[in-house]
Amino acid sequence: MVTVLPFGSWPSPLSATWASSSAPRRDGGALVEDQVWWGESVPTEGGRTTVRRRHADGRIEDMLPAPWNARSRVHEYGGGSWAVTEDGDLFFVEKSDQRVWMKRPGTAPRALTPPAPDVRYGGLRWQVGVLLAVQERHDDTLLPARAIVAIGTGDEPEIAALVAGSAFVAQPVLSPRGDRLAWVAWDHPDMPWDRTQVRVGRIEHGTVSEWTTITSGDTAALQPEWIGDEVIRYLDDPTGRWNLWEVRLDADRAPTALAPADADTGGPLWVLGARWHAALAGGDALAVRTHGDDSLVRISAEGEVTPVSLPARSRLTVEACDGTRVLVSGSAPGTTGLWLVDADGTARQVVGETVDAGILPFLPTSRAVSFDGPHGPVHAFDYPPTNPDMRAPEGERPPYIVFVHGGPTAHVAGVADSKIAFFTSRGIGVLDVNYGGSTGYGRTYRERLRGQWGVVDVDDVATAATGLADDALADPRRIAIEGGSAGGWTVLAALVGTDVFSAGISRYGVGDARALAADTHDFEARYLDGLIGPLPDAEPIYLERSPLSRPERFRVPLLLLQGAEDAVVPPAQAEAIRAALTMHRVPHAYVLYAGEGHGFRRVETIVHALESELAFLGQVFGFGTPGVAPIELTAGR
Hints:
With about 625 residues, this protein is α+β, with helices and mostly antiparallel strands. It contains ten helices and 38 strands.
């Protein structure tokens, strides 16, 4: 029997605890004979990352017991925090000291790098008997120094600095003979989705003696991989789309595109372990393609493209390749995990959560939508309220939350995660927006934000929200906006710059662009040069765009959620916003989570934050929240 209740107040079996545990964070994957290895966060253990393996018979084994925590802090976002050999020897970066450790099966870990509080490692990769890593040194330098190193694994390990010479290095890969190295390099003020170079150098006496650049330097080239000893396949976007390219090193030939498409094979290199293609035995490629949703294709050496049937169509990345088997991670409706793609193109899920059949009817189906905005089309995914046991009174329009992803170069695809389902099952719609600046729609779309952060993103989310209301799909008086980090900036800027939204939720959002430029870490130290303009000349624009420069424009209720140990957007930003809200008597709540950084990992934090968001919306929009306690809002003095 279907019950009639107002939108937002629907009882749901999808609790915050369910949402916190249904989609754990995973970090990388590997194939070791018939075993699948992967990294996974454990929210019930303070969010530590362990490494697990699945045997052919389905047994799952923890390879990194507590309290060990595989997590890199290179670039602050890390990535590539572990690797494994063909024999099952595990290398990992321990979060607490950032040293590289080695653990053989059945033995205790032993350190491969010396104690050094100012040195970090990430992007680990095991190839042809060599452990490669990106080393980041903060000692005795004005700015961190980075290099690609080879870490010895013997009884008396050594660290050989293979190459440096640029502000940033990433994605190192050795040739099959082990005598040449390819890698990605870039310098300030560029980000790796602006301009990079793919470089190739010969290794002599433990170092790269000379190197050449095989890309123009005007594009965002990524992820080189060797196809034999003389051919490199990589990603590049001279046409405006990231596609696969090849170049022969032993011939005077220009690089050639391999099956170019109006889709992106590639993405923003926020974490060091990200990969989007792999070379199969025989030379074929398995590649992710993104335009809205993600898809997987096999590309022959002659350029023939064959789609690979895969349920996952969001957050697809290529984790490992062993001959003709490829391990792919991603999200599908109702599940996230790892899929093993075999030579014949069949794919089977080998790691993932099994969603109870009773949950499936509560998961929303996405609808790809586009709206005409002042800067061009705005792409988004609409998730309407979905609950088979409930319906709203006749004529009532649902409240909506506009989700604003971070980055701002991230990308969302049309698969509902557990957080989206948590809200939609209670009668609250979600509009997930890929505003201008997002990846997945080509360089022109992501460069729409260049110099226009705080303008284009605000206009685009307002356009999407208004368009949904104009289509009579959302209650225009009950549209909230939510985002974290750069998405939090857009939340705050939209609240002071438009009258579209009735409430806001900011997770570790940026309120003062000048403070971000002054306080942030080196990876993003010059990011705002491209998003707003170089300082000090552009300081008036920073002042004009920053939400905290217009505190009197805060008029609608706001929830602030912040990690106490956030090094990317420090708590001072949230506390300045709180002070402005108090001064102007705007109803608000501020929650500071001890032990959390830029992104929440502990189960108790995730549960509390999600329930706080629901309670906040219920209080502001006037509906009950069964099973979730009210939240106290402060309106100032």
